[in-house]
């Protein structure tokens, strides 16, 4: 009878650990996705803004489909980013000067919104700088 009690206790402890792990993972994933979704909803609900819509896709070939884009300063940019499943490190995209950091999992489209205030050339890249391109702000 003692070994059955120990087995039940181990089973209960294991179940509690599994549930805690699932809760932590789901909260983490919700925070990663929820922050962008919340910001997008606030923008749409509170103001009507004309955006410069930009679409960039990381391809399996090791390159972005657009290696140069041009936008106008002072006008908000809505960047749509996605990546092929075989894009490797290209699934991550950053534009450091604007705080843009996006990860496309399973080819999903991720969106960042920002407003470039200064003319110049800004680089977008993966974490390893293997995928790269430039954004010219006029």
Describe the protein's architecture and organization.
This protein is α/β, with parallel strands linked by helices and 138 residues long. The chain has two domains: 48 residues; 89 residues, Sandwich (Immunoglobulin-like). The protein has one helix and eight strands; from the N terminus they run αββββββββ. Strands 1-3-6 form a three-stranded mixed beta sheet, with no helix packed on it. The longest helix is centred in the first third of the chain and has 45 residues. The protein is globular. The N and C termini lie far apart (79 Å). About 22% of the residues have low confidence.
Write the CATH homologous superfamily of the largest domain: Cupredoxins -  blue copper proteins
As for the number of domains, it is: 2
* Overall CATH class of the largest domain: Mainly Beta
Q: From the alpha-carbon coordinates, what is the Rg to the nearest angstrom?
A: 21 Å
Structural class: alpha/beta
The name of the CATH architecture of the largest domain is: Sandwich
Query: In the CATH scheme, what's the topology name of the largest domain?
Result: Immunoglobulin-like
Biggest sheet, open or closed, and with what strands and sense?
Answer: 3 strands, mixed
Helix content: 25-40%
Helix tally equals: 1
Morphology: globular
Q: Which runs of at least 5 residues are low in confidence (pLDDT < 50)?
A: 16-46
Oligomer: single chain
Strand content: 25-35%
Mean pLDDT, rounded to whole units? 78
* End-to-end gap: 79 Å
Q: Care to count the β-strands?
A: 8
Q: Report strand order across the widest sheet.
A: 1-3-6
What sequence of helices (H) and strands (E) makes up the elements? HEEEEEEEE
């Amino acid at each position: 009878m003692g070994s059955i009690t120990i087995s039940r206790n181990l089973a209960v402890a294991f179940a509690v650990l599994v549930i805690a792990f699932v809760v932590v993972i789901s909260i983490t994933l919700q925070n990663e996705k929820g922050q962008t979704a919340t910001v997008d909803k606030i923008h749409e609900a509170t103001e009507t803004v004309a955006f410069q819509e930009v679409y960039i896709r990381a391809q399996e070939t090791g390159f972005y489909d657009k290696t140069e884009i041009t936008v106008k300063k002072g006008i908000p940019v809505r960047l749509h980013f996605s990546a092929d499943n075989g894009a490797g490190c290209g699934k991550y995209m950053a534009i450091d000067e604007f705080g843009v950091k996006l990860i496309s999992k399973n080819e999903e489209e991720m969106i960042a919104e920002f407003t470039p205030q200064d003319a110049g050339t800004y680089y977008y890249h993966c974490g390893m700088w293997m995928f790269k391109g430039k954004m010219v702000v006029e």
